[in-house]
Structures are given as structure tokens and as C-alpha cells.
């Protein structure tokens, strides 16, 4: 039986299974974890700052050397049901080297949390940072949000906030209907209404700072399509931003271009903060 864009359930499951699509993804993730642990040990940081009452409503703040610097708010991926902020500290190397603070946001995972709550938590983290980041030497009015995979989706869901000056959404999901119809929904429990109201493709802001939507050209076709479709509608609404294909990158290696101070995503971030 066809479920979505001519794909049956098995095809749709494969179309969104990023780990299965990248044979060495376990080794890549193990490397991320090791590098992140090193950064958390060696870098000056304020860890587990509470922005809410739930156990995972915590963020880690890594200050750049310069005072009054802009801040990148980074939201981890894992299809809203896996991973932790601690394992993505490695991405901070690039922005910190370019004089940009980094805040890594945690949030409550499914199935403990529904997607409505996850979105609300991430928005609360951004608002908390806007109110409190000045206490840590940062410029409160210069908040930029980024995230990878599910974090790309959550980045898009923060763009209506006036406190967000720009966004860098990486390999995101912007139409949640295929997520509702595949294996990922076993833990998410999305119904049609929740999927629709949390689909950035159908919930464009009236006004927004610039948004760069990036994806790797070696990603699964559905991931590439999600970014291109979203950016097309974004542009049609007259909103500022652009599509950024990263040549040859897959769903995992794309993050190396943010962790590298001179990588394509880090350069895009610098351009956003200087815009």
C-alpha cells in the first residue's frame, strides 16, 4: 500500500534511515563522542545551566575569547528520540575559533515527551538565553540558532521568535507527514494535527531573520528534497535566506564543515553573524 509520494511503508522507512544509509556511521558517532568529551574537559564552559524544570531542560555554554560576542544556539539531532547535547560539543570548535559563543541545548526526548513539548522546550531555551546570556559576557541581541537533522527542524521552529537574529538549519525535516507514516513515529506518536502544526513547511513566519538551509549532496534523496522544498516556499514568501548544498557531504560528515573553523557551514555562520 502506498503511504507517501509513491513509497510504501518499507520504502519510507528506508528513505529516512540515515544511520543505515551511511555504513560507517557508528565510527563517525564514536569519534564525535570522543571529541566532545575532550572539549568538555578542556574548554572553559558553563555546563548544565537550567532553562526549565525538566531534567533535560539544560544547556551548556562555551564562551568565546572576546566579550560581547554573538552566540550560536545549537540543537542536537536524533529524530527527537535519541542523543544528548553532551555528544555534540565537538561542533563548538569551529564557531569558537571564529569568535562566536556556543550554547548546546538539551531537551526531553520522545516517547517521554510529545513533539509539541519538545518545540516548546527549545523555544524556552532560546528565550532564556536572550534573558540571561549577558550574565556570561555575551551579546543578548545577537542570538543565532542552528541544529542538525531533528535539530534542523527545531531550528526552523524557532525562527518566528524575534530574539532569533538568524538561523542555520542543517539536514532538517520540514514536512513531518512522512515521519508520521514511518518507523520513527513508533516513539513520537504523531497524529495528523500535531504533525501539521509542527511542520515548518506549512507554518511559515510572517517575518524572520535570514535562514540558511543546508544539506549534503550525498544525503538520502528525501533529506535533500525536504531542504529544497522548504527553501523554495521560504523564498516564495519573501523571507530572507538561501539554500546551501554541501557538495559530497552525507548526513553525518556535513557537521565537520561546522566544526572546522574554515568549513562551509562555519563560514555561512560567520556571514550570518556579520550580516
Could you name the CATH topology? Rossmann fold
Count helical runs.
Answer: 12
Runs in which pLDDT lies below 50 for 5 or more consecutive residues are none
Q: What Rg is obtained from the alpha carbons, in whole angstroms?
A: 17 Å
The strand order across the widest sheet is: 3-4-6-5-7-8-9-10
- Helix percent reads 25-40%
Order of helices and strands: EEHHHEEEHEHEHEHHHEHEHH
Number of separate strands = 10
Strand proportion, as a percent range, falls in: 15-25%
Count of domains? 1
Q: For the record, what is the CATH homologous superfamily label?
A: Alpha/Beta hydrolase fold, catalytic domain
Look at the structure and give the CATH class: Alpha Beta
Largest sheet: 8 strands, mixed
Q: What structural class should be given to the helix and strand makeup?
A: alpha/beta
The outline comes out as globular
Query: How far from one another are the termini?
Result: 48 Å
Describe this structure in words.
The longest helix is centred in the first third of the chain and has 18 residues, at 25-42. 47% of the residues are buried. The chain has an eight-stranded mixed sheet with strand order 3-4-6-5-7-8-9-10, with helices on both faces. The protein has a single domain (2-274), classed as Rossmann fold. With 275 residues, the chain is an alpha/beta fold. The protein contains twelve helices and ten strands.
